Amino acid sequence: MAMEEGSACSLRRLPWGAVLRNAVLILVCSLILYLGQPRRLESPSWDIAELQLNHTGPRQDPRLYWQGGPALGRSFLYGPQLDNGQLRVQRDGIYKLHIQVTLSNCSSFMKSIVSHRATLTVGICSPSSHSISLLRLNFHSGCTVASQRLTPLAHGDTLCTNLTLPLLPSQNADETFFGIQWVHS
């Protein structure tokens, strides 16, 4: 019997199918472990708020007070915060601001009174060092005003909405609402 030249050790070769099968098994197990871990819900990369009027009883103050949250239906806040019914911005940027206010119990008699003196204003009321009026809307001979605009806002700016006294806004969320949406930094 003749000996072959080379090593006296023989190596066992694994079939490639078994190697591939083991690699796929390791990959699937890793994926299952990764997907099974609980995730932290991240806040959206944009700030947005859609608010409803928070009003009860006669108005002693020209400011309109707002409320927001899922319990109110279509109202929500992601980023901005409410500070005593006023909207406070948490991030610098350019925002799309929108508002609609409908007067409550607006009749033909009310329209003649309204057209002469009813005004809705939206402005930055805090910090007071740079108080700015953003929108000034007259009702003219109607019972509803609505507007939107792009405006730069800074962290800490608080938006105030004022309605001429003693007029009462409608509390219907389809008629009176206010909101902002972050557009760009």
Automatic annotation (TrEMBL):
Coiled-coil regions, chain positions: none
THD domain boundaries: 47-183
Gene3D superfamilies: 2.60.120.40
Keyword Cell inner membrane applies: no
Keyword entries, A-Z: Cell membrane, Disulfide bond, Glycoprotein, Membrane, Signal-anchor, Transmembrane, Transmembrane helix
Membrane topology type: Single-pass type II membrane protein
TM stretches of this protein: 14-35
GO MF annotation list: receptor ligand activity; tumor necrosis factor receptor binding
Subcellular compartments: Cell membrane
Predominant cellular place of this UniProt entry's protein: membrane
One Gene Ontology cellular component: extracellular exosome
Gene Ontology terms: biological process: immune response; lymphocyte proliferation; T cell activation; tumor necrosis factor-mediated signaling pathway
Pfam families, sorted: TNF
Highest rank taxon of the organism: Eukaryota
Subunit structure: Homotrimer.
PANTHER family, per the entry: CD70 ANTIGEN (PTHR15152)
Family of this protein: Belongs to the tumor necrosis factor family.
Function according to Swiss-Prot or TrEMBL: Expressed at the plasma membrane of B cells, it is the ligand of the CD27 receptor which is specifically expressed at the surface of T cells. The CD70-CD27 signaling pathway mediates antigen-specific T cell activation and expansion which in turn provides immune surveillance of B cells.
Name the UniProt record assigns to this protein: CD70 antigen
Species this protein is from: Pteropus alecto (Black flying fox)
